[in-house]
Design goal:
With 173 residues, this protein is mostly beta strands. It has one helix at 159-172, and strands at residues 8-11, 20-25, 30-35, 46-49, 53-57, 63-68, 76-77, 88-89, 91-94, 99-100, 105-108, 115-118, 126-131, 134-138, 144-149, 153-155. It has one helix and 16 strands. The longest helix is centred in the last third of the chain and has 14 residues, at 159-172. The chain is globular and about 40 Å long.
């Protein structure tokens, strides 16, 4: 069943900001974004899916991974595309699981190091910092309008993603 838009619960932050990093897997032509650490408490539990984007969540309904399956050569580019500047810290929980998202419009900067995933055309009411290099915008009904991923790094063979995960584990211990 398709949802009209992903519904969110936004509340005051309960934990420090989480690390996040975007890696474009060159050999797979896919963008992978890890959000937070992978540990016993922060592992895949459920998802929201569209033809080109999959969002993975842990059992606490927190975003843990973004998979953009559309190759970047197909991303539309906009010369003046700039991510939102002001974003508040918040605890974001996703309320829909195992559902199909509406089609996602993918737009990028010409160098393809920043991408916007547009889920809705409704007016934005707030901008929320989810993780380093990951910001979402929501409407007045707490529904996802768009997601901004910045500082995308090319990665061959998953080397940089593996190194990022190792650094995060070392920082957590």
């Amino acid at each position: 069943m398709a949802v009209e838009a992903a519904r969110l619960k936004i509340s005051a932050p309960t934990e420090p900001p989480v690390p996040g990093r975007a890696f474009y897997q060159i050999e797979e032509d896919r963008l992978f974004v890890q959000v937070g650490l992978f540990d016993a408490e922060h592992r895949f539990y459920s998802f929201l899916d569209s033809h080109s984007v999959r969002l993975d969540f842990d059992k606490e309904a927190r975003l843990v991974f973004v998979d953009v399956r559309q190759a970047r050569r197909h991303w539309q580019t906009e010369a003046d595309l700039k991510p939102p500047k002001a974003a508040k810290l918040a605890d974001v929980r996703w309320l829909d699981f195992r559902e199909t998202l509406p089609p996602v419009k993918i737009t990028a900067t010409p160098d393809r190091t920043t991408v916007r995933l547009k889920f809705s055309t409704r007016p934005v009411s707030q901008t929320v910092h989810v993780a380093d290099n990951l910001v979402i915008r929501i409407d007045e009904d707490d529904q996802l309008t768009d997601m901004w991923i910045t500082q995308i790094q090319d990665d061959l063979g998953g080397r940089f993603l593996a190194a990022f995960r190792k650094r995060c584990l070392l920082r957590a211990s």
